[in-house]
């Protein structure tokens, strides 16, 4: 599966093609501890179940809604996106 293509189709509208997010609206995925941190279960839960309410990413608070992707994407598709975002844009 092509994680980059799945990201473009399902995530880039909010988090942007380069993972930079939208200031004040949608958090960046670049260097985000939610993406590159050791808590892979947290990343999976956010992708599967969504997230609502305030979240602090790299010193900025975002208070928007991420819709759950678990209802519209298969597990292997979510895994491909997670792998892509954890290795794209200089993330490692």
Explain this structure.
The protein is built from five helices and four strands, in the order ααααββββα. With 92 residues, it is an alpha+beta fold. A hairpin with a 2-residue loop joins strand 2 (55-57) and strand 3. Helix 1 (3-10) crosses helix 5. The longest helix is centred in the C-terminal third of the chain and has 13 residues, at 75-87.
Structural class: alpha+beta
β-strand amount: 5-15%
Low-confidence spans: none
Main-sheet strand order equals: 1-4
Cα-atom Rg, whole angstroms? 12 Å
Number of strands: 4
The helix/strand order is HHHHEEEEH
Helix % is 40-55%
- Summed over residues and divided by their number, the pLDDT gives a mean of 96
Shape: globular
Tally of separate helices? 5
Major sheet details: 2 strands, antiparallel
| Amino-to-carboxy terminus distance | 20 Å
Secondary structure elements and pairings:
Elements lengths: L2 H8 L1 H4 L17 H4 L3 H10 L1 E2 L2 E3 L2 E3 L2 E2 L8 H13 L5
Antiparallel strand pairs: 1-4, 2-3
Concise overview:
The protein has 92 residues and is α+β, with helices and mostly antiparallel strands. The chain is built from 5 helices and 4 strands; from the N terminus they run H-H-H-H-E-E-E-E-H. The protein starts with a helix and ends in a 5-residue tail after the last helix.
Q: Which descriptors would you attach to this protein?
A:
two-stranded antiparallel sheet; globular
């Amino acid at each position: 599966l092509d994680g980059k293509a799945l990201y473009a189709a399902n995530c880039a509208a909010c988090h942007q093609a380069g993972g930079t997010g939208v200031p004040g609206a949608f958090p960046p995925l670049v260097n985000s501890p939610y993406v590159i941190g050791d808590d892979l279960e947290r990343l999976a839960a956010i992708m599967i179940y969504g997230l609502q309410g305030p979240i602090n990413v790299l010193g900025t608070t975002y208070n928007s809604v991420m819709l759950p992707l678990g209802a519209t994407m298969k597990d292997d598709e979510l895994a491909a996106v997670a792998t892509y975002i954890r290795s794209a844009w200089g993330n490692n």
